[in-house]
Structure formats: structure tokens, C-alpha cells
Amino acid sequence: MSALLDVRDLRKTFGGGQTLFGAPRPEVRAVDGISFTLARGETLGLVGETGSGKSTLGRLVLRLIEPSAGQVRFEDTDVTAASTRALRAMRPRMQMVFQDPYGSIDPRMTAGAIIAEPMTAHGVGRAEAAGRAARLLAQVGLSPAMAARYPHEFSGGQRQRIGIARAIALDPSLVVLDEPVSALDVSVQAQILNLLAEIQARSGVAFLFIAHDLGVVRHVSDRVAVMYLGRVVEMAPRDALYGAPLHPYTVSLLAAVPRPDPLKERNRPRIRPIGEIGSAASLPTGCRFHPRCPRARLVAARGGDTVEAEGTRLPSACVRQDPLLAPAGGAAHLAACHFPHED
Ligand code: SF4
Ligand code: MG
């Protein structure tokens, strides 16, 4: 069976060219050649810092923005080549939930109207849509009587439940969730993550779950992809990624996830990337993580083929060759690092 979603070498460049006054405008490679597949009913967690390109990738997948290159296939249809009309016909099957339940909900519409809108827009009669909206409210753990209330009468968690009800109203096979719990309290986060798991178990919907920390996606993801400056640098089944991370960037992100056990907390490796995330407008040569990579410094200290870079000695491979995302720990565990097994 072919994948539900098949993303091939997807790219998005912003800027470039010249400003009005003739100055060169920097080109930002926000998404710089990303490929992955998603099976029906699967959850892929997509993790990265602000500026890694994860939200851009989520929007490209649904073609809410136009890609610069590459292809997205969804249910065996080429989304990137689809006409406006074909895309509109596909919309009910591919939905999005946004980070900010306040910003993404129209304050002048009742909860019932917000949930019913995508249904009426796709030909469901008003009475039928209202009835279904009431049932959807119950499905997301809210009272059907709340259909008559306005967004300001709900808490952040309740608003996110409304956003989710709206997204699943037309029984999609894919929902892209862009930081759906980042604006919520930790206890409310857990409730929303449980709700998403329940919905998936019942309907078989697939999720692309975008988050900025590995702690949040751990419980909901079958596989996890880690993004850095427009690329996926590691992708693996959940347990492999958390149990035996191969990319030094993933290792550093995991070191930042708090653990409940204070004993383990004490023994945790203290790996930190050096400095701040760089910019997709001026990508480093070779491996884009090399200016921040603790492993490159460690490998260079052991000798071998090194060069002077970033004021220190680094392996010449790290500075000169862009590492490809390739199997590094079994066929399903991919990493983009020249030294995936050295620490
Ligand atoms: Fe670090 Fe080199 Fe691996 Fe890049 S290729 S992550 S710089 S060790
Ligand atoms: Mg974002």
C-alpha cells in the first residue's frame, strides 16, 4: 500500500533578488530539501527550534503556501500540481490545527458556527452541520450546550478543543498540528494530547505533529523527525530516537528535556550546542550544524583530517561536505552526520 503522504525534496526559499533600492535581499532557505512519508493512522512528530522551518514545512504539505521546488503526494494525488479546484476538493481530507487557539478562532462566531463552517462550506446542510457540531463538541470533551457560546467564554484548552473539533469535522485522513499545546498549561497539555490519541484510535487519522521540544511529542509520536535550519537531521521510530539518538543536535535537545527522576537527572550527559541557532539566510558550509557541534570538536581532537574553522580545529568532512540524511542505525533510523556513532 502506498503512503498516505509522500513528501519529496520539498523546498521553500523566501526573499532573494533585490530591494526597491537595488540592495540585494538575502535569500532564506526555510525548507531546504526535505523528504519523508507518513502512513495512514501514523503520527510523525516534527521537532525543531524557532527558525528551523517546521511551520513552513507544515504549511507546504497542505499547500497553504507554494513550494519553491519538490513534490507532495497525498492519497496518490500530486498536491503541488493540483488546480485550485482539485485542491479545494482535497481540503476536507487534509486539515490544520494552529498553535494559538485565541488567534485562530473568529471571536464573533459561536463555537457551534466555528465547527459547522467547514461542513457548510463543503455542501453539508445547515441543520445537519449544527447537529454534527453538537456531536463533535461531545467528542472533544465539551458539552453540546456550549455550541451557543462565544470564544471569549472558553479557556485556552477549551478553545483548542474547539479548534480540533473543527479540524476533524469532515473526517480528514491527515491533520497537521502546529504547536497545538505550546500555549497551554502543562496539565491542560496532557489532556489535549490524550484527546488527540483518542481521536486517532477511533478515526485512523494521521498526524504531523509540530513542536519545539522533544518532551511534548514523545507520547504521541510513532516516529520523530528533528529539524535544523531547514533540514531533517534525524528521523527514527520513537523509541530508537529517544533511546539511542545519533545526531549530536538531537542528543543536545534530549539533554534539555526535564526528567522526573532526580537520580537520572544527575547522571544526564551535559551536551549543549555552542551558541545560538544560526540563520537560514547564511548557511554554514558543509554540515550546517558544524559551528555549534560539540561532537565535531571531539572528533577533531582525536586527530585525522582536520581544518581550521570557527577559531578551532574541526574534521574537514564537517566543514566541507554536506551530510545526507541516510540510514545510520538500522534501515528506519536516519541521521545526517558524518560521525553518527562517535561520542
Ligand atoms: Fe557534527 Fe560533523 Fe556530524 Fe555535522 S557532520 S553533526 S558537524 S559531527
Ligand atoms: Mg512555528
From TrEMBL:
Among Pfam families, the record links this protein to:
ABC_tran, oligo_HPY
Major subcellular location class: membrane
Q: Which SUPFAM superfamilies match?
A: P-loop containing nucleoside triphosphate hydrolases
This protein's UniProt keywords: ATP-binding, Nucleotide-binding, Transport
The biological processes this protein is annotated with in GO are: peptide transport; transmembrane transport
SMART domains linked to this entry: AAA
Enumerate the Gene3D superfamilies for this protein. Answer: P-loop containing nucleotide triphosphate hydrolases
Give the subcellular location.
Answer: Cell inner membrane
What GO cellular component entries does it have?
Answer: plasma membrane
GO molecular function list: ATP binding; ATP hydrolysis activity
ABC transporter domain: from which residue to which, for each copy?
A: 5-254
Q: Which domain of life is it from?
A: Bacteria
- Topology relative to the membrane, per the entry? Peripheral membrane protein
Record family assignment: Belongs to the ABC transporter superfamily.
Question: What protein is this chain from?
Answer: Oligopeptide transport system ATP-binding protein
Organism for this UniProt entry: Roseococcus suduntuyensis
